[in-house]
Structures are given as structure tokens and as C-alpha cells.
Amino acid sequence: MYRIFYYDSPPVEKNVFHPLLQRTINFKKQPTFAWMNSFLDALKTKRKFALRLGFLAADEASYSLKNECTKKLFNGSVKLSDVVEKDFQLAMQQKGVDMKIGIDIASLAYKHLVEQIILISGDSDFTPAAKLARQEGIDFILDPMGHTINSSLLEHIDGLRSHYQTLVNV
Asked: 81: buried, middle or exposed (CB in 10 Å: 19+, 13-18, 0-12)?
């Protein structure tokens, strides 16, 4: 094994207004904030492990109704007074991570540092990187974590293996 690359973003420190609760949520005070920082710090100490961090576009963060709830509101099966906190989701975009993944795949392929790349991602944006790796003779395996992938990515991988269902059902 050459190395495990882990891509993520540090937790957001921003306060975000929740429209249903009519108050601001301070993410720095949430239990997941401390846990995520501890988790990322622990990963930094692991052998053969490369931590690649992007960032969260916190300025664009907002709570919005989940699609299912929005549909129910507009088809009349739910009234606005029936909406509860779990009907909302936090909308926030991770930035810089996809680019780092693509650059790392290209670098590993061009330098012929590895014979196989296993990408664990539910994102189908990696078609160019997978195609490049295969053109350089790299065996490219994808685990989409139970997500459906588009046909263009499927065309440019050597194998599709998903262990997501196995782990979820344990």
C-alpha cells in the first residue's frame, strides 16, 4: 500500500439562523464540532495516512426544507403548522476537496507511484481523473457507497465494488 488519502473539511464555526426554531445555531458549540476536530487531529498522526482538507463555504450556509417536506407542503398532504425541525437540512458546500482528489489521482498516475487506486466516493465527478489513471495503466476501482454513478464514470473504471450495504446492515 502506498498511502491512504482522506479528504474532508474541518467543521464549520459559523452561526446559522434556523427559520423554524427562530434562533441562531452556534456550530462551534455542537458536540460534533469537538468530535470532528479530534478525529482530524488523530488522523494526522497515523502512519501512511495523508489528510487533505478543503473548507466549508460557511458564508453560504443555511437551513432549508428537505425535498420530501416541500413536496408534501405543495401537494397539500402537510400543512405549514405540521413542519418540524427534522424536516430541515443544513445546506453547506464543501470546497476544494474534489480538486485535491483529482490532482492526487493525476500525480499518482503520472509518476507511476501505484498500480491500483481505490476511490471511495458517492460523487460521479471523477470521470476525467479515472480516465487519466487508466490511460497511465492504473487499475481503478470505485466504491460509490451505495450511490448510483453516471455511465460516463462507469465507462472509465476497471471495477465497481460496493461494501456500503454490508456495513449498513451490520
From this structure: exposed
Instruction: Encode pLDDT of 87-140 as tens digits.
Output: 999 988 889 999 999 999 999 999 999 999 999 987 778 899 999 999 999 999
Give first-to-last CA distance, the chain, whole Å. Answer: 27
User: What is the value of pTM for the model shown?
Assistant: 0.80
Dist CA 170 CA 167 (whole Å): 5
The string over 125-147, giving b where at least 16 C-beta atoms fall within 10 Å of a residue's C-beta and e elsewhere, is ebbebbbbbbebebebbbbbeee
- Beta strands per DSSP E along the chain: 4-8, 15-18, 23-26, 49-53, 55-56, 62-65, 88-91, 94-95, 116-120, 139-143, 159-160
Q: How many CB atoms lie within 10 A of CB 17?
A: 12
Q: Which amino acid is at 106?
A: A
**Nearest one of 148, 93, 94, 141 to 117, comparing CA atoms:** 141
Asked if 79 contacts 69 with a C-beta cutoff of 8 angstroms, the reply is: no
* pLDDT range class, residue 170, cuts 50, 70, 90: very low
